[in-house]
Amino acid sequence: GQQLNQSPQSMFIQEGEDVSMNCTSSSIFNTWLWYKQDPGEGPVLLIALYKAGELTSNGRLTAQFGITRKDSFLNISASIPSDVGIYFCAGLDYAGNMLTFGGGTRLMVKP
Amino acid sequence: KAGVTQTPRYLIKTRGQQVTLSCSPISGHRSVSWYQQTPGQGLQFLFEYFSETQRNKGNFPGRFSGRQFSNSRSEMNVSTLELGDSALYLCASSREPGTWGTEAFFGQGTRLTVV
Fold first, then answer.
1. Does B97 touch chain A (CB under 8 A)?
2. A20: part of which helix (H) or strand (E)?
3. pLDDT > 90: what percent of chain B?
């Protein structure tokens, strides 16, 4: 099936630092979504991207939908301890049938 | 407004048994999707239901099945459980099929452990 390559797999950063993670795919997606998952919880949507080239912000988070429709990145600025968690990218196919998820980026923030 | 409710939250079953998991979508949401999350395979699509009909199915064996009721609540069933079925099973609901983005929400999941 389709695969999304998400990197890095994990990051251990100092509070206040900026973070960047990205996803690449061999297939084109119609929509890119970024989720955060805390332990014992379901994924929570952070940002949704609908157009190639689109750059969208949500507070300290910024994400972009790649021009080729095969990639996306998420940046977190000035990280804080509550940013700790696992971040997932997900691509939605043109039929809107199902999400394909990346493998996740585990973020750890040192106060 | 209540979120997506999955029951039970935790479940321990023995190999060979069967299990039924339940998902109650957000009020007004008619589309329900199921995903399996494991450390090795990540999040993988199981199936999607809308108006009591299965619209799509992921690449899982026939032991995995589901259904949706007229009130949009959905259940998934796994028969003849294997150790590898141990996972967090997540349900997501949306108003219509394909309306992800800001209109779809995940439940907290059911943690199934097969021993």
1. yes
2. strand A19-25
3. 85
